Amino acid sequence: MKQVLDVMNTELITIEANLTFDNILKIMTEKGTGKLPVIDNGQLVGVVTRDDILVRKETAPLPPVIAFWDLLITLPENKEFKEKLKKLSGYVARDIMSTDYLVVKKSDDLAIVITQIVEQKYNYALVIEDDSIEGIITKTDLINKCFN
After folding, report:
1. pTM above 0.85, yes or no
2. What are phi and psi of 89, to 5 degrees?
3. How far apart are CA 141 and CA 62, in angstroms?
């Protein structure tokens, strides 16, 4: 029986709740990660994901930007787009983070966790032990470690 410990990724990058939007994008791009746990006063308070950035409600008129993680293609500019982009760049992690995420323990049965991820439509699970974030399991981690 495999456990979460057997497949979890411990090389996760956390960010502070007051980190600016521009710096969040920079970290995601440079580190090639799409999920950044947010820490405030030493406690996990949320997670900023690529979806939080791309699907942020009312941040930009549609369709302002087509994002391919190594390349951003800006569509024709207009006044509304410029105003929304300026507003978006003022956001910090606390403003855009998700607070709905799956929490698991290192000793949890991996089959049960995979079922939870799929049935509850999560893209990842955070591994928490004694109120401390120990790692993350993404769908990519599962495929790489269970099928290779």
Report:
1. no
2. -70, -15
3. 32
pLDDT surpassing 80 at residue 27: yes
Q: Are the CB atoms for 127 and 135 separated by under 8 Å?
A: yes
pLDDT in tens, 29-87: 899 888 999 999 989 999 999 888 776 544 444 445 545 445 555 555 556 656 665 66
- Distance, in Å, from the CA atom of 144 to the CA atom of 65, rounded to the nearest integer, reads 31
Residues 110-115, mean pLDDT to the nearest whole number? 93
Distance CA 101, CA 38 (A): 12
Q: Which residue has the tokens 């996990």?
A: 44
Cα–Cα nearest to 21, from 104, 109, 84: 84
Q: 127 φ, ψ to 5°?
A: -95, 115
SS (H, E, C) 33-85: CCEEEEEECCEEEEEEEHHHHHCCCCCCCCCCEEEECCEEEECCCCHHHHHHH
In one letter, which amino acid is 90?
G
